[in-house]
């Protein structure tokens, strides 16, 4: 067994084990392997809201070590710190000593807030992360174990990577680029209704800020209302023409958050809005120019900032036996650098993810194991 701690500046080998390719990596009678449903339950029961993924990561590190896999830990050192003060870690696991593998199977262990506890309702499993994306994590690990037991994957074939921070700008996957690895194929786990996603929309985020002058609402001429500055721009942005494509449909704009002023009888000194634009065609820079042009035409003195941007993301869908789909949400696919083939697949429906009724069917979880095994075997053919 080998445990390695990685950071951009540190590579520490704590222990080294010898590897015998003729010895089974996972022994069902002694390894402490959990069934698919037990593994999924264990993951969902651990709260892992973005920034607070430590306990989920620690569970995976312990579990994967028990399977006699080599485990590497990568600290995530982005500016966005853990809300709990605990370490945030990506977890990489593989067979033996060959960290360079042909295929990578990956998903994320963080969830959106708030935490909802695990609950079994008949043939359904409810709870935060049950779909997005601990369903994928559990199915991926189970598929990996099954293929090892069947002798279909060996040292140097496939690695597992579970990252933090996907829900918050993909900080974990961006850090994973520092691992110094590349792959022929990467299989990403996200809820795609058991279909192969042929791609997903891009995104750019907009932050508008208005700075006014506070005063008594009875004397509006003595102040400058920041809300009145912001509202015309939001109205025009909601009406602007955005590009579309045959594959992804319309580019959409969502005014997700608006905040301004302190009281009804006070002229608002500050106002802000946060907007997410899902890009169906074009580049973030082209969309950002459209936004700037619209804001400028309103004549309002607003500060405009953009964060996180990428255009539509192509994924491969050349494996027989899968239905295909395009999705409107963002993933870690564009955050991992390289010219690898990219497959996006997993159990569950994105329409219930991030909700208070997040759930999936047990049969879908079981089918995902079969799907991941098929994708892994295809990648090695």
Task: Explain what the structure shows.
Keywords: Hydrolase, Metal-binding, Signal, Zinc. InterPro entries: ArgE/DapE_CS, Bact_exopeptidase_dim_dom, Peptidase_M20, Peptidase_M20_dimer, Peptidase_M20A. This protein is an alpha+beta fold and 381 residues long. It is elongated, with a radius of gyration of 23 Å. An 8-stranded mixed β-sheet has the order 2-1-3-4-8-5-9-21. A hairpin with a 2-residue loop joins strand 1 and strand 2. Helix 1 runs antiparallel to helix 3. The two termini are 28 Å apart. It folds into 2 domains: 267 residues, Zn peptidases (Aminopeptidase, 3-Layer(aba) Sandwich), CATH 3.40.630; 109 residues, Alpha-Beta Plaits (2-Layer Sandwich), CATH 3.30.70. The N terminus is likely disordered. The protein contains 7 helices and 22 strands.
Secondary structure topology:
Elements: E1 3-7, E2 10-13, H1 36-44, H2 54-66, E3 70-75, E4 89-94, E5 103-108, E6 119-121, E7 124-126, H3 134-149, E8 158-163, H4 171-176, E9 185-189, E10 196-200, E11 202-211, E12 215-216, H5 226-239, E13 244-245, E14 249-250, E15 252-260, E16 266-267, E17 270-279, H6 284-298, E18 302-310, E19 313-314, E20 324-327, E21 341-345, E22 359-361, H7 362-380
Parallel strand pairs: 1-3, 5-8, 5-9, 9-21, 10-20
Antiparallel strand pairs: 1-2, 3-4, 4-8, 6-7, 7-22, 10-19, 11-17, 11-18, 12-16, 13-14, 15-17
Helix pairs in contact: 1-3, 3-7, 5-6
| Structural Rg | 23 Å
Determine the strand fraction and express it as a percent band.
Answer: 25-35%
Uncertain spans, ≥5 residues at pLDDT below 50? 1-31
Tell me the series of helices and strands, N- to C-terminal.
Answer: EEHHEEEEEHEHEEEEHEEEEEHEEEEEH
How far apart lie the N and C ends? 28 Å
* CATH architecture name of the largest domain: 3-Layer(aba) Sandwich
Please state how the strands of the largest beta sheet are arranged side by side.
Answer: 2-1-3-4-8-5-9-21
Round the mean pLDDT to the nearest integer and report it. Answer: 91
Major sheet, described briefly? 8 strands, mixed
Q: Tell me the domain tally.
A: 2
**Percent helix range:** 10-25%
What is the helix tally? Answer: 7
Shape: elongated
Reported by name, the CATH topology of the largest domain is: Aminopeptidase
Number of strands: 22
CATH-assigned homologous superfamily of the largest domain: Zn peptidases
What is the CATH class name of the largest domain? Alpha Beta
Signal peptide: 1-18
Family: Belongs to the peptidase M20A family.
Keywords: Hydrolase, Metal-binding, Signal, Zinc
Domain Peptidase M20 dimerisation: 199-299
């Amino acid at each position: 067994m080998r445990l390695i701690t990685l950071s951009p500046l540190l590579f520490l080998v704590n222990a080294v084990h010898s590897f015998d390719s003729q010895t089974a990596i996972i022994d069902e009678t002694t390894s402490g392997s959990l069934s698919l449903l037990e593994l999924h339950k264990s993951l969902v029961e651990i709260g892992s809201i973005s920034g607070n993924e430590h306990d989920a990561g620690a569970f995976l590190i312990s579990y994967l070590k028990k399977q006699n896999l080599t485990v590497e830990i990568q600290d995530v050192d982005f500016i966005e710190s853990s809300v709990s003060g605990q370490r945030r870690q990506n977890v990489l696991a593989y067979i033996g000593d060959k960290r360079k593998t042909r295929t990578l199977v990956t998903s994320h262990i963080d969830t959106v807030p708030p935490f909802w506890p695990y609950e079994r309702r008949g043939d359904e499993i409810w709870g935060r992360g049950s779909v997005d994306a601990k369903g994928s994590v559990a199915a991926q690990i189970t598929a990996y174990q099954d293929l090892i037991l069947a002798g279909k994957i060996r040292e140097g074939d496939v690695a597992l990577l579970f990252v933090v921070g996907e829900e918050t700008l993909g900080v974990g996957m961006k850090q994973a680029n520092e691992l110094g690895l590349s792959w022929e194929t990467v299989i990403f786990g996200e809820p795609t209704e058991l279909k192969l996603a042929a791609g997903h929309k891009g995104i750019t985020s907009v932050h508008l800020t208005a700075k006014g002058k506070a005063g008594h609402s009875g004397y509006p001429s003595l102040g400058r209302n920041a809300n009145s500055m912001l509202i015309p721009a939001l109205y025009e942005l909601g009406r602007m023409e955005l590009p579309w494509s045959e594959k992804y449909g319309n580019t959409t704009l969502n005014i997700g958050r608006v905040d301004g002023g302190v009281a009804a009888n006070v002229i608002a000194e500050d106002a802000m809005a946060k907007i997410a634009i899902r890009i169906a065609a074009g580049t973030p820079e082209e969309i950002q120019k459209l936004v700037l042009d619209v804001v400028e035409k309103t004549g309002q003195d607003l500060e405009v900032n953009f964060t996180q941007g990428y255009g539509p993301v192509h994924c491969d869908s050349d494996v027989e036996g899968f239905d295909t789909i395009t999705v409107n949400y963002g993933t870690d696919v564009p955050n991992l650098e390289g010219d690898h083939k990219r497959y996006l697949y997993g159990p569950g429906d994105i329409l219930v993810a991030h909700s208070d009724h997040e759930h999936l069917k047990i049969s879908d979880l079981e089918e995902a194991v079969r799907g991941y095994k098929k994708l892994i075997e295809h990648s090695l053919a």
